[in-house]
Specification:
By secondary structure, the protein is α/β, with parallel strands linked by helices. Helices cover 39% and strands 16% of the residues. Strands 6-5-4-7-8 form a 5-stranded parallel β-sheet, sandwiched between helices. It has a 4-stranded parallel β-sheet with strand order 11-9-14-15. A 3-stranded antiparallel β-sheet has the order 1-2-3, with helices on one face.
Length: 328
């Protein structure tokens, strides 16, 4: 073997040996026994008493904590919180702030999601050295969302409130499915996730769950999953090939997909899509279809009222939504 090649192999092996361990890409979060939770990074946290000084660095965590009635326990949120309104009164934090700002606030729990946990691993390690619990959570489907709410309830001593959230959600879903059952001819819908990459959602994702609860048929059920996410590769060619079948074109709008109706209308080749030709293009807020919060009920209702306005009437809204907040 060439001596230079041998040298590079030895150096590469040494680097692998010396490299620090990398956090797991994603593990299944879970309730473990009566007092312990496991997060997406595989940490197991024993909850001896409820955490009471919480910094939340993900908008869904923040929204759910407020829904659990933890106004006083939340001492910090991610920068530019958007919902609920009360979150805007809390101090803003960013992982780019460094550990000093976090330590000065004296939290006992910092809630993140896997993307931040992996991206700012040195910060998370420093916080843990000072006995601040870091917990990384992000559900990928509806059943995981219920487990996620229960984990938040256990961490904060609000387990009964978490069960109430789950019951509220299941009741709303039941009403939505009842209404969907009255629809004789269901519409086929393409649900766009990322416009400029021609990506949609996986069948077990929250947006597709909302679509199907509302009575829509997912027109992109054959897909290629993007890593371990709820985003699916679909491609321009496949969208156009089944364009004649697509009755409605939905697109989420938010940080992941800044798009409007004109972007879709003007996409080259999209005039072959039935929904585009007939003006059946609609934009829905990413927050109400892709976040694991009670406002997913609002997402179901919003999609239903787009697809079947004669069924999802304003008078029936309370049956699905209950007291879910509707403002932005």
């Amino acid at each position: 073997m060439d001596k230079r090649l041998q040298f590079f192999i030895l150096v590469f092996a040494a680097l692998l040996f010396l490299a620090p361990p990398v956090r797991a890409e994603s593990q299944t979060m879970a309730l473990v026994g009566k007092h312990t939770v496991r997060d997406c990074a595989g940490r197991e946290i024993r909850v001896e008493k409820p955490f009471s000084r919480i910094i939340s660095l993900y908008g869904a965590h923040t929204e759910n904590l407020f829904a659990l009635g933890l106004d006083k326990e939340i001492i910090g949120v991610g920068r530019h919180p958007d919902y609920p309104e009360k979150a805007r009164e809390k101090p803003g934090f960013s992982p780019q702030d460094g550990p000093e700002k976090f330590l000065a606030a004296r939290p006992d729990l910092v809630l993140v999601r896997p993307m931040l946990d992996r991206g700012y691993e040195p910060l998370m390690n420093q916080l843990e050295k000072f006995d601040i619990r870091v917990v990384s959570l992000q559900p990928g489907n509806i059943e995981e969302m219920k487990t996620y709410w229960r984990i938040l309830g256990r961490l904060t001593g609000r387990e009964d409130a978490a069960e109430e959230m789950i019951a509220h959600f299941e009741k709303g879903v039941k009403h939505a499915r009842f209404l969907a059952g009255q629809i004789p001819e269901k519409k086929r819908v393409y649900f766009e996730a990322i416009h400029d990459r021609f990506k949609t959602f996986t069948p077990d994702s929250m947006p597709v769950f909302a679509l199907e609860c509302a009575g829509g048929i997912n027109a992109a059920d054959d897909f290629s999953q993007v890593r371990n996410t709820n985003i699916a590769e679909f491609g321009r060619e496949r969208i156009m090939a089944r364009g004649w079948q697509i009755d409605v074109y939905l697109a989420q709008n938010g940080p992941m997909n800044s798009v409007d109706v004109k972007n879709i209308e003007n996409e080259p080749g999209y005039n072959v899509i039935k929904a585009v030709r007939q003006g059946e293009i609609y934009i829905v807020d990413e927050q109400i279809v892709a976040r694991p919060t009670l406002r997913l009920l609002k997402g179901i209702w919003t999609i239903g009222s787009i697809l079947y306005p004669d069924v999802y009437t304003k008078e029936r809204g309370g049956e699905v939504l209950g007291d879910v907040g509707g403002g932005q």
